[in-house]
Amino acid sequence: MTTFAVVGLLAALVSVPARAQTLNLNFDAIAEKAKEITEMKLDGPMLEMLKQATLKGVGKEQQALFAAIEEISLQDFEFAKKGDYSDSDLAPLRKQLSATAGWSRVLNAKDKKDDTEIYMLMRGDKPSGFLLIVAEPKELTVIHVAGSIQLAQLHELINSAVYFKDLAQE
Asked: Cβ distance 106 to 61 under 8 Å?
């Protein structure tokens, strides 16, 4: 996805810690329209197992990437043709974000190929949540990270999530 380049640039410029938060990521209506669905949620023992496997033999910088993450979720929906889902299908998620104190959109990038939105949750003066939405004509991806992570490390985390998505599809 070309949007990951935007995330990489943003990650290089900003460092933002995230802390656990609760979002209702219900995409049942979108999933009904999709030809392929990849959903991944890593938390609890599964996330700890991933952390242990990932942290063996790596440097402190890479260890910090996963060390304080409490949950990673990725939903990816592929559609047979353009128009199988619409922007209005994301209205419940956007409404939830706007109704929850502290969430704000920090990036809204649109071009002919895709739309990218990044939302951050602020608790007081501290950033404490992250949500990425990438909407392409025939694909929709939503990534949510709960737990402490530096936004500067987010690009690597997203690449890891995409790697696991690809493994799940094989």
From this structure: no
